[in-house]
Structures are given as structure tokens and as C-alpha cells.
């Protein structure tokens, strides 16, 4: 069993996390696993309540259960960066998803094409499978308005911009390029644009004027999806209790895996729910905002700490 747990920990590392920070620290003691937050892998400015961090840990827990194909018994204590999840492997088999599905899931920031029929079918199944979350659709105009507003706010907040930049991997020779963060391949940025991005972001003068050029770049970046795909918001009754938030993270991964099973991928815009002004325009308890559609190009693999060198 201990060897199976070891292998499951490796596969669970494919769980999604904000900025691909992989904020989990995992300790294995025989057949028990303790999951903590790695404080060096959090986003204290963009995610001051640690909601995204805890959602990432919840996604890790779900991926771990799938990898082991066993139901888990969880004990959650602490909150935010001090959160601890004690995990015990239960006797019941896990049936909803397969390890292969965890390994194959990907976020896609390229152009997505609408497929409402598959989306509605997947969301119907999500309604049956979710333990706490409810999926709602968001209109395109609302999304655009909120998205443009957050792009401007991030650019005008140099601290948040700097934190985001610290997780961007725009230089392929950076040793972290294949370890964590958001690299140019996954962001779908060409080598030329990545070079320009590095120059803009490394120049203190240009960085100070980010309020002017960053929103323009953001618009350009998203203009690829002029006919944008469907927008989904996941909401839950309780997103403040740490144990409930872990369940939200598990539901988030279940939702994305059901969408993947239907041939769909997601592109995430957490800043819309992390920004207090735009969050106020979302349904109550919104904890995830993402677009859904069919990929139109091959999706590059995002990096993970356990697989350095994977390109
Ligand atoms: C809670 C959470 C928030 C996320 N927020 C964003 C986001 O705002 N923008 C984005 O492009 N991706 C976001 N993502 C997706 C991650 O960046 C992505 O999971 C990570 O880069 C790993 O890539 P993969 O999911 O393709 O394996 C988020 C993921 C999670 C779990």
C-alpha cells in the first residue's frame, strides 16, 4: 500500500493550482498522508484569503483519491496558510474518475470553440456528482466587462503585478521553466512576444506605466477569442470554512474532469472573483470563473515540480 500511496502522490501532483504554484507540501507516514500549505508557494497579494491555495489543495486531494481509486477520510484543521489536511485511505473503492483522466486533463489558454450541447450535458452530470458546488453560466458581455476591469486593476497595482510576474516563466533557459509557474508555451506566447514581455517587465520605468500598456496587451491577448466560448461560474453556500473549501476544490477538479470527458477544456480567470469590485457582480459564493470550449490546437503540457525537464 505504501508504494501505491507514493505513486498516487506523484500523480496527484498533476492537480491544477493558481499560477501553477503547486502550493502543497505532502508528508507520508505509512498509510497516512498529511497535506500542508507551502507558504513559499502562495499568492499573498493576489489571493490574500488563500482561497485559491486551499482550492488547489482540494483539487490535490481529489486527484489523490482518483490516483489510489479509494475513498478518503479527511480531517481538516487550521485555515489559510496554516491549513492541514490529515488524509486516511478508506476501504471503499473510488468510482467517479480514472488516473488516466487526471493525467490527461489540461487547462487551455489557446482559442476555444463553443460547444453548448456538450457543456450542458457535462454540467448536468456535474449536478449529480458535485458535493457542494453549483455551476452557473455567465453572459459574454458581463464577462468582458469584468475581465477588462480586472486587467486594469492588476496593472494599476504594482505589488500584485510583481507577484504575478514572479510566477511567469518567459525565458526557456530559466531552470524553473519546466518546474512551476506559467511558462510562455502554456500562455501561448510566441518566443518573440516572450522576449518583448521580458523587456517590458524587467524595466522599472516600463513597469511603472503598466497601467497604460498592460490592459491593451490583455485585450490583445484575449482578442484571439473574439467569438468567445461559454463562461461558467462555480458557487457554493460556504466558501469560508476550510473543510468546505477543500470540498469546493474537489468539486472544481470533478467539474474540469467531466468537461474533459465531454471533449472540453477550460481557461481560468480567477482575478474576476479575487478582485472585490468585480466579485461583487458575481453570484454569491462564487469561487471559480472559467471559460469552456473545444481546443483548436495542441495544448502544451504545464510543468510540475516532480518532472523537471519535461518540455
Ligand atoms: C484555484 C485555481 C485558480 C486558477 N486561476 C487561474 C487564473 O486566474 N488564470 C489562469 O490562466 N489559470 C488559472 N488556473 C489554472 C492554473 O494556472 C493551471 O491549473 C496550472 O497552470 C496548471 O496547468 P494545468 O491545469 O493545465 O495542468 C487556476 C487553477 C486553480 C486550481
TrEMBL record:
It comes from the Bacteria. It is an enzyme of class 1 (oxidoreductase). Gene3D superfamilies: NADH Oxidase. Keywords: Oxidoreductase. Its EC number is 1.-.-.-. InterPro entries: Nitroreductase-like. One of its GO terms (molecular function) is oxidoreductase activity. This is NAD(P)H nitroreductase acg. It comes from Corynebacterium occultum. The gene is acg.
Amino acid at each position: 500500500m505504501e508504494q501505491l500511496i507514493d505513486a498516487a502522490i506523484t500523480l496527484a501532483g498533476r492537480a491544477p493550482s493558481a499560477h501553477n504554484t503547486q502550493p502543497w507540501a505532502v508528508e507520508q507516514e505509512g498509510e497516512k498522508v498529511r497535506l500542508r500549505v507551502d507558504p513559499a508557494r502562495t499568492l499573498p497579494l493576489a489571493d490574500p484569503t488563500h482561497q485559491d491555495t486551499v482550492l488547489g489543495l482540494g483539487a490535490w486531494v481529489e486527484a489523490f483519491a482518483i490516483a489510489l481509486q479509494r475513498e478518503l477520510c479527511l480531517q481538516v484543521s487550521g485555515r489559510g496558510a496554516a491549513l492541514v489536511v490529515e488524509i486516511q485511505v478508506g476501504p471503499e473503492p473510488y468510482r467517479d474518475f480514472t488516473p488516466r483522466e487526471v493525467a490527461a486533463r489540461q487547462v487551455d489558454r489557446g482559442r476555444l470553440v463553443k460547444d453548448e450541447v456538450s457543456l450542458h450535458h457535462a454540467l448536468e452530470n456535474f449536478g449529480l456528482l458535485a458535493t457542494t458546488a453549483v455551476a452557473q453560466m455567465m453572459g459574454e458581455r458581463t464577462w468582458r466587462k469584468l475581465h477588462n476591469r480586472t486587467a486594469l486593476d492588476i496593472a494599476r497595482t504594482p505589488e500584485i503585478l510583481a507577484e504575478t510576474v514572479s510566477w511567469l516563466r518567459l525565458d526557456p533557459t530559466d531552470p524553473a521553466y519546466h518546474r512551476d509557474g506559467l511558462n510562455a508555451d502554456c500562455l501561448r506566447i510566441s518566443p518573440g512576444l516572450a522576449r518583448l514581455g521580458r523587456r517590458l517587465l524587467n524595466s522599472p520605468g516600463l513597469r511603472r506605466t503598466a497601467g497604460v500598456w498592460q490592459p491593451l496587451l490583455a485585450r490583445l491577448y484575449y482578442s484571439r477569442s473574439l467569438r468567445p466560448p461559454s463562461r461558467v461560474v462555480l458557487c457554493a453556500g460556504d466558501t469560508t470554512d476550510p473543510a468546505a473549501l477543500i470540498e469546493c476544490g474537489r468539486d472544481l477538479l470533478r467539474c474540469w474532469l467531466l468537461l474533459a470527458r465531454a471533449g472540453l477544456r477550460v481557461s481560468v480567470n480567477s482575478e474576476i472573483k479575487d478582485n472585490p469590485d468585480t466579485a461583487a457582480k458575481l453570484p454569491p459564493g462564487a469561487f471559480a470563473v472559467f471559460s469552456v470550449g473545444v481546443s483548436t490546437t495542441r495544448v502544451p503540457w504545464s510543468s510540475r515540480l516532480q518532472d523537471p525537464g519535461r518540455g
